[in-house]
TrEMBL record:
Its membrane topology: Multi-pass membrane protein
Record-stated family: Belongs to the claudin family.
Primary localisation category: other
Protein function: Claudins function as major constituents of the tight junction complexes that regulate the permeability of epithelia.
Region ranges (Disordered): 195-217
Keyword Transmembrane: yes
Subcellular locations according to the entry: Cell junction, Tight junction; Cell membrane
Example of a GO MF term: structural molecule activity
Lineage of producing organism: Eukaryota, Metazoa, Chordata, Craniata, Vertebrata
Transmembrane stretches, start-end: 12-33, 79-98, 118-142, 162-184
Protein name in the entry: Claudin
Domain of life where this protein originates: Eukaryota
Amino acid sequence: MAGSWQAKAQAGGMLLALLGWVSSCVTTVVPLWKSLSLDLNELEVWTMGLWQVCIAHEEGAVECRAHGSFLALPPELRVSRLLMCLSNGLGLLGALLAAAGLEGWRSCQDRPGLKQRLLLAGAAAFGVAALATLAPVSWVAYNTVLDFWDDTVPDIVPRWEFGEATFLGWFAGAFLAAGGLLLACSARSARATTAGHAARRGERQGLRPSRRPRERL
């Protein structure tokens, strides 16, 4: 029963973590972190991402231009680039480590302790990847709110608003955190189960009667 729960928890955690990792990669690439609609020209919608700025026209055409110098970017975009790339790398590392530690995987079957450590390491990598995703997305969202409600900017000036990638990044971080937590819980449960089996085996061996031959008188 415990093994069945562990297998289901590992499968669910792996699925959530992979979904979060893919969503984090998409969030890193797409130019949809911010959106801007011009009141004077409603036929165009501006969107901004970590790597480029795009203009979507009413007829469906999209024009994109990459950002200039890295040093010329706002601090939140520079840090967001680094953290999102770190998150994507940690997500890939966590997937490889956790996959090797799954119960259904045949690697290290004779070394259950190693499999549990690999699973915990993968869960930790997913947890750090979640933080590395949530931090930049929340920072950019916070600055967007501050700029939107800035009283020093005239009301006629268009304001940047949340883009779709902001919400996708929040979901990605939540999925990564939930998946890592499930994997960590299943690894801890597997360790406790293994320790219990070892203790019971030791007790049975201790209670087993000795079969040494009797000494003759």
